[in-house]
Write a structure and sequence with these properties.
alpha/beta; Purple Acid Phosphatase, chain A, domain 2; 2 domains; 5-stranded mixed sheet; 3 helices; 7 strands; about 30% strand
């Protein structure tokens, strides 16, 4: 939510990629993209904070990020892992602020397959 926190994460390495969220401070929002595609471990990963309303979410995300192996979104803090064709759609939930979710969670991807982890 702040440039300082992003800098602290980047200092941990190896690389940090971020998109802007609704709670980010204005200076941070001004430098982060709304959507981003990154490559990691041989996967194309689409990132967005707010995926919109649940109806049509998977189709919408796949249209925003064609050719991605995994698309990760957040905002709701409700964990989700679904398959849309050849693409995994994931919401890792949150390891810190679970809000309406039943537990603190995150997603780990091993061999191209996402797994929900309760922390």
């Amino acid at each position: 939510m702040s440039s300082e926190v992003l800098a602290d994460l980047a200092a941990l390495g190896p690389s940090v990629h971020a998109v802007r969220g609704n709670m980010d401070e204005p200076p941070l929002r001004s430098v982060l993209p709304e959507r981003l595609v990154v490559e990691a471990e041989g996967l194309r990963i689409g990132l967005v904070h707010d995926s919109g309303l649940p109806p049509g979410r998977a189709e919408r995300l796949v249209s925003w990020f064609p050719g991605c192996d995994v698309i990760a979104y957040g905002h709701s803090h409700l964990p989700e892992i679904v398959r849309a064709g050849q693409t995994w759609i994931v919401n890792p939930g949150s390891p810190t602020e679970r809000r309406r979710a039943p537990a603190h969670t995150m997603v780990v991807i091993r061999d191209g397959v996402p797994e929900l982890v309760v922390v």
